[in-house]
Amino acid sequence: MLSKKQLFSRGMLDIAPHMLSVIPFGIICGAIGVDLGFNPYLVYAMSIIIFGGASQIVFLQLLSGGASSLVAVTSVGVINSRHLLYGAVLSEYLEKLSLIKKLLISYVVVDQGFAESNKFFKKNKTEQYLHYHLLGTGITMWVCWQIATLAGIILGSFVPEELGLKFAIPLTFIAIVVQDLKKMDHVIVMLVCGISSLLFFEAPFKSYILISPVIALFVAALLLRLKK
Amino acid sequence: MTWLSITIAGILTYMTRMTMIVLVRRDLLGERIKAVLAYVPSAVFPAIIFPAIFINDYGVYIEMNDPKIFGAIVAVLVGYFSKNVIATIFSGLLSYWFVIFIF
User: Fold this and answer.
1) SS3 category, B61
2) How far is the C-alpha of A4 from the C-alpha of A127, rounded, in Å?
3) Are A128 and A1 in contact (CB under 8 A)?
4) What is the C-alpha separation between B38 and A183, in angstroms, rounded?
5) What percentage of chain A has pLDDT greater than the value 90?
6) Above 80 in pLDDT, residue A157?
7) How far is A57 from B45, CA to CA, in rounded Å?
């Protein structure tokens, strides 16, 4: 049985490699916000209030492009709706927590943290303080995101654009799913999701990010039925 | 006005994080749904990966010889065999830079 501290450190350790892409992306996000002409305090406040990488950029880009607030807010909601799926998966492991702890831990659920903690949870179901792993991944992400966006806001885009560091983001997610390429059913689900996201990319409010997982999960359900 | 929008967007985002964690109970999900939920990472992350590789900043599909495709293929191969996140990210970036700066 691991202690709370051990689980927390393990979470930090598991998420740490992803900072390779999260930190440059945070710097870019902060710098873009200021470049688009927004108040620096406002750009930074988003990192605390929304705390959702790509959705923060999309929000500012939409507003500066002349979209209404309603469109910008709806897009953020749609982009971040994928957390609903993460929550549904994590709920099984967080069930025993009190309501207040559930409310608090929810704030730090992010893509990479969910992915790494979920992998850990699947292998260590019997640990008593599992949620400390999620706190470890989530809080590490939060702290790095705050520092990175702040650095981008204050220093501007000191990451040369020619390096194309935005490309590190898909690479981080490739690292997360790549081991599941061993399983044919997962390969099919990934291809369905990926191809759908390209087909529906132009759908309003960035809804491809919601439509594609729904289609892919539907295919997953069909595959499960075929397997029986 | 912008501050109000950010606050609403923040509340919405928090709701997406919190709702399922608070509401879902074990007995609420049948075995079938749980089995489907096991596919969530494979069903969600490609929607971030594919557009980030195949569609450029202007919303246009890239050419097949784009360095991003080469970088992504290298990252998949290195990631698959090394099982290492840092190696995956680095190999992808390095091969991408190799094509951009050296070719």
Assistant:
1) strand
2) 10
3) yes
4) 13
5) 92
6) no
7) 19
Q: Hey, is the C-beta of B71 within 8 angstroms of any chain A C-beta?
A: yes
CA gap A63, A88 in Å, rounded: 32
DSSP string, A117-168: HHHHHHH-TT-TTTHHHHHHHHHHHHHHHHHHHHHHHHH---S-GGG-GGGH
**In chain A, what is the greatest distance between 2 CA atoms, to the nearest angstrom?**
57
Q: Are A177 and A57 in contact (CB under 8 A)?
A: no
**Do the Cβ atoms of A146 and A159 come closer than 8 Å?**
no
Which secondary structure element, helix H or strand E, spans residue A180, and what is its range?
none
Confidence check: pLDDT of B48 > 80:
yes
Q: What tens digit of pLDDT does each residue of B74-86 get?
A: 999 999 999 999 9
- Residue B82: per-residue pLDDT: 97
Tens of pLDDT, residues A168-217: 999 999 999 999 999 999 999 999 999 999 999 999 999 999 999 999 99
| Chain B nearest-CA residue for A79 | B13
Could you tell me which chain A residue has the CA closest to the CA of B52? A170
Three-class DSSP category at A210: helix
> Per the CB < 8 Å rule, is B71 touching A49?
no
Cβ atoms of residues B43 and A220 within 8 Å: yes
Residues A125-147: tens digit of each pLDDT: 999 999 999 999 999 999 999 99
Contact B76 A178 (CB under 8 A): yes
Q: Residue A104 pLDDT > 80, yes or no?
A: yes
In one-letter notation, the amino acid at residue A57 is: I
